[in-house]
Automatic annotation (TrEMBL):
Residue span, Orotidine 5'-phosphate decarboxylase domain: 16-255
GO biological process, one term: 'de novo' pyrimidine nucleobase biosynthetic process
Enzyme class at the top of the EC tree: lyase
Organism: Duncaniella dubosii
Name under which the protein is recorded: Orotidine 5'-phosphate decarboxylase
Pathway the protein contributes to: Pyrimidine metabolism; UMP biosynthesis via de novo pathway; UMP from orotate: step 2/2
Length: 276
């Protein structure tokens, strides 16, 4: 899925919502545990209920890997279900990979060729050769961690070099020499608030994947205020806040209601900032 197609979907749906499929076997409604593949049954119901309100899905691989082979199969089945039934949705494997070039090329093959997702989250720590193999796929995206949503983001990401440039700014600056706004996005946590203005100073036109609204308490209002561009330039993720809105038989309807609420807010923001 290319940049124009993502923007078209955002405008069409009045939404820049990404639903996080962080599906935890210990948190899904009990009645689903009788299903032959409970994780897939949960994901399928969540997808069918929330698809009108979002433009992307982001399964985090940890939730699937924790279940071994069965989890990986459920993830693969989920991606296939999205591909076959919702081809207008952007699919992000949140895997946070990155290794020496030779190994990264196998991660890229696993996620882009084998699983067929549109994008993968990548950690920048090992540098250019660890990121490049993911960029060698036409029509696929790297989403590089830049300024994360967690408290530990302050341990390294704000450290400055001799010129006073912070590490996250160096990541943003340097990585834009490796890729373009057509194949490279950055992760910036919703909890970083006004720091979005600093991010936009260095990366004015890149799409940002923004986790941290909902369960982590980030403000959608602030993200848009400091981070939105004339093309939107944002994909805002919420996982737990949507998919665990109810633990009962009505879990899918409750998820849809949460997604719709966020979509309604996003439509207002898109209109306020002149995107639609
Ligand atoms: O790369 C990510 O998606 C990510 C980066 C980051 O800085 N913070 C962050 O929360 N995430 C992921 O985004 C999702 C957030 O989930 P909720 O807090 O439940 O909405 C999880 O899958 C996290 O692993």
């Amino acid at each position: 899925m290319n940049r124009e197609q993502i923007i078209e979907q955002i405008k069409k749906k009045g939404s820049f919502l990404c639903v996080g499929l962080d599906t935890d076997i210990k948190k899904i409604p009990e009645h689903l545990l009788n299903e032959e593949d409970p994780i897939f049954a949960f994901n399928k119901a969540i997808i069918d209920a929330t698809a009108p309100y979002c433009v992307a899905y982001k399964p985090n691989t940890a939730f699937y890997e924790s279940l071994g082979v069965d989890g990986w199969k459920a993830l693969d089945r989920t991606v296939r279900y999205l591909r076959e039934n919702y081809s207008d949705q952007f699919i992000i494997a949140d895997a946070k990979r990155g290794d020496i070039g030779n190994t990264s090329s196998l991660y890229a093959r696993a996620f882009f060729e084998n699983m067929g997702v549109d994008a993968i989250t990548v950690a920048p720590y090992m540098g250019f050769d660890s990121v490049k193999p993911f960029m060698e796929y036409d029509g696929k995206w790297v989403i590089l961690l830049a300024l994360t949503s967690n408290p530990g983001s302050h341990d390294f990401q704000f450290r400055t070099d001799m010129t006073g440039t912070r590490l996250f700014e160096q990541v943003l600056e340097t990585a834009q020499k490796w890729g373009t706004p057509d194949n490279l996005m950055f992760v910036v946590g919703a909890t970083q608030g006004a720091m979005f203005a600093e991010v936009r100073r260095v990366a004015p036109s890149s799409f940002l994947l923004v986790p941290g609204v909902g369960a982590q308490g980030g403000s959608l209002e602030d993200v848009a205020k400091w981070g939105i561009t004339h093309e939107c330039g944002l994909l805002v993720n919420s996982s737990r806040g949507i998919i665990y809105a109810s633990k009962g038989e009505d879990f899918a309807e409750a998820a849809a209601a949460e997604a719709r609420k966020l979509r309604d807010h996003m439509t207002i923001l898109l209109s306020t900032y002149g995107v639609i």
